[in-house]
Amino acid sequence: MITTVTLNASIDKAYHMTEKIENGTVMRVAKTDNSAGGKGLNVARVIKLCGVDSKATGLVGGFNGQYLESLLDADGINHEFGHIQGETRSCINILDPGYGSTEYLEGGCNVTKEEEADFLNKFPEIIKDSDVVTISGSAPKGMGKDIYQKLIKVIKDQGKQVILDTSGEYLEKGLESQPTMVKPNEDEIELLFHTKIQSKDEVITYAKRIYKEKEIPYVVISLGGDGALLVCEKGIYQGKPPKIEIANTVGCGDSMVGAFAVALEKKMEPEAALKYAVSVASANALSPHTGRFDPKDRDEIIKNVEIIKLA
Ligand SMILES: Nc1ncnc2c1ncn2[C@@H]1O[C@H](COP(=O)(O)OP(=O)(O)O)[C@@H](O)[C@H]1O
Ligand SMILES: O=P(O)(O)OC[C@H]1O[C@](O)(COP(=O)(O)O)[C@@H](O)[C@@H]1O
């Protein structure tokens, strides 16, 4: 069983436009897709599609919070959230023929110190039946920047594996508790090391630094259409997907995290885990929906994912 943590949950709205966006005009939306979002809930849907039991936790509130729980019920995803006074946010992804994808991410409501303490108290019980826990995305205002550092400690004290997928100070502090795996993308590496990445060699250098200096067993750097890099005890690998006709890349990083969580749960070898995760994430890019994929696409893609040993 896998638990996914989403502190800053969201109603994700995908606006599918038939016309190219013209800024400063009135645009009509051809089709709207609402989904339970915030990165961790995309992860939960992907785990379910991979055929593994999961439980979604985090914080929800208000009418949007109730709606979000009903969306998870409709997808058959177990959940046990902390309930807060504030209203769960919305995030909008506009898909149009001109720009592709344009995202507007709300910051989220405020969480009180009491609500944070209440969630921390319940957390050990919520995760007790899981072998792997994923923690994704930003945290809402009012929560300490060390919130993930604290959660990781609780998870590791129970002898479980944990994947952290976040950015900025949350990642910096979270690394101090040594999660089993992190999955930054290039932007998140740049933010962490206050640098501008110019080449793949530099990406490898920074990934190796996280592996060695922070002692993180699996460091995965996602590279969009170029796939992902994995640094672990067995070496350094790149997983390269085949060229595909993308429909919506929102939730690709989350799909990769979900697939790696499944791989950890199933104790897959690193190369097999990388191949599987790249296939699932690329199958998500083929789907117009956020954090969903067609298992048939994954099974086709996996035949053409190249795993290259770099060191
Ligand atoms: N254009 C694309 N073509 C094929 N696969 C893609 C594409 N964009 C993303 N992916 C898949 O999704 C994974 C994660 O994508 P990425 O965009 O790097 O994550 P994030 O959402 O965290 O920025 C990639 O490793 C790849 O497997
Ligand atoms: O919690 P954050 O970091 O604000 O991100 C929230 C948003 O990111 C998304 O997951 C998309 O992220 P990715 O495309 O990087 O996977 C939206 O679905 C979501 O609502």
Automatic annotation (TrEMBL):
Catalytic reaction annotation: beta-D-fructose 1-phosphate + ATP = beta-D-fructose 1,6-bisphosphate + ADP + H(+); D-tagatofuranose 6-phosphate + ATP = D-tagatofuranose 1,6-bisphosphate + ADP + H(+)
Ligase in keyword set: no
Span of domain Carbohydrate kinase PfkB: 9-292
InterPro entries tied to this protein: 1-PFruKinase, Carboh/pur_kinase_PfkB_CS, PfkB_dom, Ribokinase-like, Tagatose/fructose_Pkinase
EC class (word): transferase
GO molecular function, one term: 1-phosphofructokinase activity
Associated pathway: Carbohydrate metabolism; D-tagatose 6-phosphate degradation; D-glyceraldehyde 3-phosphate and glycerone phosphate from D-tagatose 6-phosphate: step 1/2
Keywords: ATP-binding, Kinase, Lactose metabolism, Nucleotide-binding, Transferase
EC annotation from Swiss-Prot or TrEMBL: 2.7.1.144
NCBIfam families associated with the record: 1-PFK (TIGR03168), pfkB (TIGR03828)
Purpose of the protein: Catalyzes the ATP-dependent phosphorylation of fructose-l-phosphate to fructose-l,6-bisphosphate.
Family: Belongs to the carbohydrate kinase PfkB family. LacC subfamily.
Protein name per its UniProtKB record: Tagatose-6-phosphate kinase
UniProt source species: Anaerostipes amylophilus
Native organism taxonomy: Bacteria, Bacillati, Bacillota, Clostridia, Lachnospirales
Gene behind this protein: pfkB
